[in-house]
Design a protein that fits this description.
Helices cover 26% and strands 5% of the residues. The longest helix is centred in the middle third of the chain and has 14 residues, at 50-63. The protein has one domain. Helix 1 runs antiparallel to helix 2 (68-75). It is mostly helical. The chain has helices at residues 50-63, 68-75; strands at 36-37, 40-41. Strands 1-2 form a two-stranded antiparallel ribbon. A hairpin with a 2-residue loop joins strand 1 (36-37) and strand 2 (40-41).
Amino acid sequence: MSKFCQSCGFPMHKDKRGGGSNADSSVSSLYCSMCYVDGSFFSPAEIDTAAKFQTYCIQEMKKDGINGLFAWIVTRGIPKLERWR
């Protein structure tokens, strides 16, 4: 199992569901439950690059009351994750 979601970088040990769900209903060891559901990525279809996904994540975190600077800092590593290579 990966230590961090390979889509958004979220710590997998903090995922309440233990990971996302694969198409066969098994738990994904690469992607968190906020990114990956039933074998598909949860983000809107137009989010097709790491840069767009970073912007999307920052906006979503701000909606949850997270400071914008902090959100930017924690999303900087997204382009290095497996989904975006």
